[in-house]
Amino acid sequence: MPVRVAGKAIQDLDYLHTRVNLTELFDGDSPKIWKELERTLDASEKYLNDSDTVIFAATTLKRILIIVQNAHKPLPDHFWNKIILHIRRVWDYTADCVCYNAIETFASLLDIHLRQCLDCLERPETDSHANCDRINEITQWLLEPTSSCKARFKCIYHLVSQCPTLRLNLGEDFFRRTYPLLSNPSFSSVICQLIVDNIFDRDELWDLHCELLLTSTDAKLIKSRLVPMLQKYHLPGSNKEKQQQQQKQQKPQESDTAVKFLNQLLIQLNSQDPPSDLQSQLEIVHALVNTTWPRKKVKDDNGMQCLVDFSNWTQCISEATMGEAIVHVESEVRLAAFKLVVENPRKTIAFNENDIEYIKTFLASNMTLQAPSARQELIAAYKYLCQRLGASAEIHLKAKPKTTDKDSDSCSPDSSSFDSRGLSKWRLGGDNNLHPIPESYICLAKWMAKLAFGSLSTKGNYYRRIMGLMQIDVLFSRENFIVDGKCFFVDKLNLESTLGSDRHNLVIDCLDDSYDMVQSTALGLLKKLDFGNIKLDEKKYLNDAVDLMTSTRSRNATSAGFRMQYYLTRQPDRYKFCLMRFLDDVNNRAEAAEKDLLTITTLPIHSILNMIELLLRNPTWKETTDQEKNQFYREEILDHLLQNCHKIIKIVAPVVQSMTPEGCIPDEILSKLCGVSADRLTEISQHLLICCWRAHKHVSGIFAWIIEMLAPLGIVTNAEIEAIGSFYWAQLTECKHRGAFESATDGFFQLCSFLWSTTIQGLPKPADWLEEILSAIRGETDLTNLCSTRRSAGLPSLVLSIVATEPKENENGALIKATGSLLNMDGKTSEYRVHSMNVMKTIVQSSTLHNKAVFCFERALRVAIEACRADWSERNAASQLFAALRTKIFGVMRSAQRSLVVDAKNRKSNYEFFSKFPTLYKFLYDQLTSEQQSEFSLLPPLVVLSHLYTPASSSELYPLRPFVPKLLEIALREKRENLRAHAIAAILSISDAYAKEDLCQWIEGFDYQNSRQNHVHSFLLLMEGLGGCVDYVPRIVYVVENILKSLAFRNWSDFNINQLLLIANAYRLEYDVDDVSVELVCLTKRPLAVKLLQDRDVLKSEMCHLWRDEDTRREVYRVICKLGWNASNMFLRAHIITLAIKDLAIPHIPQCDAKRIMEILTSAIGNFMSTESLQKVEELIEARLEDPNLNWTLPSTIAYATKLRYSRRACVDQELIAWIRECYEQDDPETKQIALEVGAQFVCRIRSKRSYTDEEKELIGAVALYLQDESERIRNNTSYYLGHLIKDTGYKAINPEICRLLVIKWCLNDGNEDLSEFASSDRKHVRDERSGGDDLFDACAVNQYEEYQLFGDIQMYESSLGFSGVTAEMYDIEY
Question: DSSP for 368-382?
Fold first, then answer.
């Protein structure tokens, strides 16, 4: 096919984008400017598929109109429609710059028209009906909801901005259609502009806007976009003349209008029946508090002055609302409430007594936030809190405090100092030398420090510990309290004085944590904070670290590394001593392992090597010159450690390079283990493998450090560098252990970077290595033991490291050479072709090379497709390469692709794809017509074509219509179902409107009565695909109805009947299920089940013979499980329940079917299941559960059975309580949820009272376990079920953390304060004992959220919830 370079069609017009001579452009009878305009418009239409031309044409058109606009010249009338058509053609173009230029073109065109149109110039300013015909025409097509693109709304905004009276056309209908689009990020900004513009122009629509904003708009969008736009809309003072004109006309300023609207929004938000949820309410109030108008006087409708106050949250919502939000069951609501209390742009506003109560309640009960994003939000608000404490305290520090009577009760609440909810009204103060506000702040900050350090307990979970460390990091940073350089408050606070040995030990213990994030954060705090003169027992500390390194567990080795880093931070002069000690240990352990390899499992080398590598990468030299450092590195590291590392590699190589992933015991060792059991041998082999390969890994890391840090200093000899290079070369070309060659990859990358840039003579060159490995892959050089694995092991990483580190001055010479050699398959054997494609796949996937490798994609795609004709191993490598190319060319899939329909974002137009890869056009066509086709070679071209499409205005360049007949031919002749499906998917993807019309006509004329089954299948797939286009639905429905009426499908295969009935069900077409012989079909039973459930004739449906078929009933149950009972006709439900009970009674019913039946029966309880049916179910379940031959093994199956068993029980038994506790220990969320629902069924019957029976306590205690479940959803549900038991709360559900403590106190402990018996760590000790004997793997927690200590302040929680009986002592702050 001929290729035209359309991008150069009007490139000679680039002179218009420079300074031009207006006289040359506009002089003469036929001005040059109009000819250039005509050429630009023609090019934008003719070459619409050429993105370069369209971009340049759009930019040039905008430039021409700007020239005309600046020259004040009239635009010829015949250009008007052409420019409008151009705008409508490209305003939704794939390139954003084209859309932007279309909008600017429209604005310029509109401005030119308003200047030269006599009708518009003579139009009265207030007359909205006197616009000219062109303006009316533009208004009409812009307001028609025919196109939903961002540029359309931008054009509407420009139109109403330049023609203000047209705002009257934007009424209720327009905004009700437009508001739902706010959820789309592409539209949110421009639609918010239209909304704000309408708010300032038409106050009669305020009620409508408030309603739509509160019901159909995300509150975060109001906060982030709408409110800031209201503030920036025509800021007062930006236009003095306009402001003076407003004052003369007695019009309100823009800020007054915005404040009045936001006030009305707030009133509607706080109405008795607010239309938005609590979180949205808090988010909107937070946006109001952050406005630039904290307090503003405005005139109401009667002309009276009124004060609108947004300065603080207390002016916007009630205390009751905040009290409910701060202990809400949903973490998002609690976090929004805390941010509202804390974050205020006016930082000098002091916190009142209730603010401090809310802050303490929130912080104490939200230390275990699970989501990382929520933790980051909390820490950001925490830092803001510190800033506000400092800013608002500075004002009062210099002020003289008011003296109070010593006998007054200013330090404790009296009977009148409680609000309606029981919250204390603090009378701050008590220290005559300090103002009450800074004094209360100091108490609060020290309480926060106590809370944070208390959260570091090993009995807490990971989330609490990491939150505590993050809060300590913020709280003990002085700069977080300093505002405008004022340090009075932070000096008075002096939090550093609270640090001591106890808190130091708490942070030290975090170094042994099982989570790396906790360890690294704790180490950073230990280095940063000054804990005073802490005496550290150096001998014991070092011995503890050494003891940890005698274990094989990676956790212990990591802990030892963190401990040593902290020690050397305190004692930097001991760095050399510690490093020498560990070097001696490596030497001793290497010698022992050389004599007996099994000693590496009892005295592991890898932990010492890990420590050495850590110390080398984090040196703490003190008063040491560079010469002394180099001398030490030369004598100790290079002369001794390097030799030991090579010795260790030789020792562990037989184990690491074995082909057994479970482990390997060398023969000479195995002979010494005669009589050892097989289980013990397995354990020894795993232990040995892990110890060996971890040592191998750290040796690679040490070599990488030597190359990175010492080689540039010139103290490493050429022989040593060559030895390191030989090690990496051997690992990447011979080693088959994935961990081993992956750890060598990073070191080899460093080595190649150094060798490419070094000027040292005599070193090996990466280019020589590349030539050597490419020769080996070509089969020209025999490399012994070259990787023979399916993915070529480390070979791809070796080549990638060389080409990715190539310096820029080489101009990708190594990459070009490598790809050229790899993609040349001539003369290569199958093994080397596999290696070539594996290496190419890694190069294509590399993010380091980015777009450097694009030049070879075309050839690589051809190689991958052609290689699919080879044997299995080569096909496998080719498919991997093809998948990598598809991802790079068409982009990563945005979501899981569950059908052959490709997402629009992963498709390219025919011109866009073939202009980049022109030779593929003929190549793909030839692949479809080749006589040497196979199932595997035909599939890749079909996949490529399914990623292409033909735009609406396609040109003659690279047409896709010639592919359609060939694809249809493949779809009709192929015996393989997947190829037929891919061929139809490709047809539907590349077909334009004309091709689809031809296909629809082909469908209408298809002889489905006399065709082969393969042809019928392709016909049905094509018909289903065309049904996705609304224009063809009536014709498709007509064809399907004719097939159903003719009963021709009765002779079809089961597969085709299933496809036909799926289409019929999708269009809700009527057909008789008795026309299908159920004995002859299998797949068809699924759509038949859907039809049975939706049948309007209930009597006929109940009598249908299909119900007698077991498989059909099974499909019915599956549909109900998936879609719910709403998928069934309500009059059929009783019949289905009866059949389900009978099927459940079958003795050997499969477990999956039994579970499905019990699931639908469970959902029917309490809705439409009769008492008789429920009694039958209970009796049946009782009998099945007592059957010793029961085949139900899944916990979820037993859970459904238990739920049915106890559905009508009035009271619980010990068996049920034990089962609920047992389910809590399960890993299956479904089982846990069902067990929780069963327990809640009985808990909800218990009323809140002073004391509970032992049986009630056992039940409540079993259900309360789920308040510590790993799933937040289960914890919240548990809080809903137990919330009514908590005394005096009045809430349905509260924060599960608070709920747990109060349930323990009031329900399980009869209101007693001593809860020590409920804070047991027995279960944790049991788990540690279970894993203590295993020195190989780290212990893992079943439930990461579970804690073994009660955290929180019950009295404070009771006060926040409004409990009666509050005493003053509960407010004493200890620190």
Answer: T---HHHHHHHHHHH
